[in-house]
Amino acid sequence: MKIAYLGPAGTFSEKAALETGDQQSTYLPMASMPAVITAVETRAVDLGILPIENSLEGAVSVTLDVLIHETRLRICREIVIPIRHMVVAKPDVQLDTVEVLYTHQQPLAQSRRFIERCLPNVPTVAALSTAAALVEALADERRAAALTTLHAAERAQANILAYDVQDNNNNRTRFVVLAPEDAAPTGDDKTSLMFTAKVNRAGALYEALAIFAQAGINLSKIESRPAKAELGDYVFLVDIDGHRHEPVVAEALQKLAQIAGTVKIFGSYPKFRG
Fold this sequence. Notes:
By secondary structure, the chain is α/β, with parallel strands linked by helices. It has 3 domains: 90 residues, D-Maltodextrin-Binding Protein, domain 2, CATH 3.40.190; 77 residues, D-Maltodextrin-Binding Protein, domain 2; 82 residues, ACT domain (Alpha-Beta Plaits, 2-Layer Sandwich), CATH 3.30.70. The chain has 9 helices and 15 strands. The strands form 3 sheets. Strands 1, 2, 3, 4, 5 and 11 form a 6-stranded mixed sheet that branches. α8 packs antiparallel against α9. The two termini are 22 Å apart. Keywords: Amino-acid biosynthesis, Aromatic amino acid biosynthesis, Lyase, Phenylalanine biosynthesis. GO terms for molecular function: prephenate dehydratase activity.
């Protein structure tokens, strides 16, 4: 099994890939999210892993846009990874001697409380990823530290100065596993899809959502994104309980197709249960 993910190694994306595969799997870090998609589409790999949603920051726009506009791959699984940030340095560096902090902008924003209290006068240097931050900190001749992942610290056998410095311990990122086909029904599934209104008029969205309500199908998520056509045109993205091959769900999706402008199913897959 070959699995592509958004690199470099040591990131939360690699952690999600490792959760998906096993000891016999091969893992391929890619430079961008579209590159992960292309690797699966061309069968260079079997599966691709992409982040799709963060509990604090919301949807990952690039992943959604690729699913909506650029690929026919299906979601076959979801993985939820806790987001934990560590302050890591070389063995001879202590927290009170740190001279510079390498960090990606996202973990920096998510760890403001610790940085302001424990490293208030330490300048920060922007890095392309949490893994790159650690590599650059370890290569710096100064007493440098990095805001990075436990996974990256363990890979580098680096010195962890502080654990779990994130402001919110409930921070989670949901990753989706993409493949040519989605998963078979398990009895505890969800389906992700998008649709557009056939006509922009009052009640159009209500009519579409009422189909699921009348069928007794729960919507666990709904959001909208620009359709990238005319100003004011939107795509609606929903996650519903159930597998698309279940009779009740299949009938609801068929009714939706009759009144919607476009319907695209991203896939049916087992719910993540930890």
